[in-house]
Amino acid sequence: MALASLHNICVHRIYGFLKEGMWKFCLTNPFSELPTQEVNKLMEVTHLVRHKDPPKIGDVILLLTSGRLTRLDLCRFKPEEEQDLIVKAKQTTACSISLPNFDSQSKELFILHLVRNIISGNPYLEEIHSNIHPGFDVLRNCQNLRILTFYPSYRKLRLDHFPVDLSALSSLRNLAILHLSHMDTETIANVLEICPKLISIGRDDSLDSMEEIHQRRLKNSSLNFDVGSHFQLRRCVWGTESWFENRQESCVYNSRFCDKMRFAVTLCPLVQELIFYVHVKEAMKELRFLKQLTLLRIDFELYEGDFVREFVALVQEIGPQLKHLSIIWKDPFIESYRVPVDIICDCCPHLESLEIEQFIFEPRFSSEASRNFLLKRLTLRSLYESDPESLLFLLSNCKHLEELFVENVECFDDALLRQIFERNPLTELKVFFSEQCGLTREGYQMIMEKASSIESVLIDVGRENYFYDANRVFKDPNLHYLEDDYFYVI
Q: What local confidence, expressed as pLDDT, does residue 52 receive?
């Protein structure tokens, strides 16, 4: 094992001293004069700690109040479970936090003040990630902010109910990525128009908002929107991922779907990464005008009817520009919806990663012709029908695979894996993950012996897991793990 650098050793030692409370009686914060990158590295250590010893705000209160952070991630902390530790740390350390008396105040108010103090005390922040919303007004002090992500809180606390303050957002002139939970159509439209540098609004569907913006511009025809009128968005989600409650709602939505897509493509021609839920197959044609699109996740689950021919036409058109393609296919029990994987590989010569969920290969894919697919990452999920020949052909011709994930594919067993290795030694494979497939300990040992570049392996067969990680201090390829090993791989 390569020796850790002296710098990393020092960082981890300082983190250990923090947990021990070495600086708890200092009159001034000893970290307030450190370079920002060093304080950031110390905070990163808190996120590398095993889940059995989760990070605590009370342990790193001096880092959080140093005023030197450029990246703040509060998602892994649970302040509602350590109020006593936080108050004690505040009383014994030189941290600049003013908190109400939590004995006489609500738990929510205590945590709200805590988060607000941490954010306001770090004016150099460029990234904020939190599932506790501090309110928008406190963000005015963070003029360098580029990434703002507020996740919904799944705990007993509900501190994510603040209305969007457009005035506060408009003051953040460098804001590029904004993720707020459950923004409605009008709010998204307002945010996009007031924050012109945004490249992403998270996982919120913006298709209806594009139509809203288009209608607003039609009404305000006195303004000239011809020059520089499009947005800077690079990542988008278009189409609702939810089922409609009744048929009428679905028909109304679908009747406008192609128009919505046309407005979206016109307003966002720079999109590079797109999650697209197909409701009307003709709408796929609009994707041809996204000349910078390199990542596409396309979901057909909500579409009723045959769509394979239109999908093939789309891949033939935009395939050469795609580097990453993820497909959520239709019900695999309908044979007419078989995935044309051969066409995908032929039409996407620069594809680096491919993910297919709910798939059945086209029978013709099992051709004897040898090919050389350039895929580096392949994910296959939910092959409900036995099709080992097509699977064998695909994996035998992926000579450059570095990561392979196979889930719920029963025909992927030891015998098939042995045939794959006979045709393809997988010399570049580094990560292998298999869940609910037909592999056993023998398959696990085969991977360890034959994949010369392997770094991480996890085979989950229900009752037993076989796991290996090259970065672990103790490495034994025959070790048998029954614990939750996903923490190491995913």
A: 59
For position 340, what pLDDT does the model report? 83
The answer to whether 375 touches 398, Cβ cutoff 8 Å, is yes
Strand partners, 296: 274, 325
Q: Is the pLDDT of residue 221 over 90?
A: no
Contact 261, 238 (CB under 8 A): yes
Nearest 10 degrees: CA dihedral of 136, 140, 99, 55? 80
Q: Residue 293: which H helix or E strand, with range?
A: none
- Is residue 371 over pLDDT 90? no
Name the nearest CA neighbour of 42 among 24, 23, 19.
Answer: 19
Q: What letter would DSSP give residue 245? A: S
| DSSP secondary structure, 321-389, as one string | G-SEEEEE-S-TT-GGG-B-HHHHHHH-TT--EEEEES--B-GGGG-S-------SEEEEEEE-S--HH
Residue whose token pair is 């406190």 = 138
Q: Which 3 state secondary structure label does DSSP give 354? A: strand
Return the pLDDT at 36: 93
Contact by Cβ (8 Å): 6, 12: no
The closest alpha carbon to 161, from 139, 182, 130, 138, belongs to 182
**C-alpha distances out from residue 249 to 161, 260, 304, Å:** 28, 16, 15
Q: How many CA atoms lie within 13 A of 89 on its CB side?
A: 27
128: phi > 0 → left, psi -120 to 50 → alpha, else beta; which? beta
Domain limits of the chain?
8-175
Q: How far apart (Å, rounded) are the C-alpha atoms in residues 311 and 325?
A: 13
Locate the DSSP E strands across 184-272: 200-205, 235-238
pLDDT reading at 200 higher than 80: yes
Residue 25 is encoded by which pair of tokens? 């009686």
Cβ atoms of 344 and 325 closer than 8 Å:
yes
Residues 6+ apart with CB under 8 A from 227: none
CB 185 within 8 A of CB 212: yes
Distance of alpha carbon 473 from alpha carbon 480, whole angstroms: 16
Nearest to residue 286, comparing CAs of 236, 215, 229, 221? 236
- Band (pLDDT 50/70/90 cuts) for residue 295 is very high
Tokens coding 318: 């935009």
The model carries a pTM of: 0.86
In the three-class reduction of DSSP (H, G, I as helix; E, B as strand; rest coil), residue 413 is classed as strand
pLDDT of residue 75: 87
Residue with tokens 């897509």: 261
Residue-wise over 324-346: b if at least 16 C-beta within 10 A, else e? bbbbbbbebeeeebbbbbbbbbe
Contact 79, 112 (CB under 8 A): no
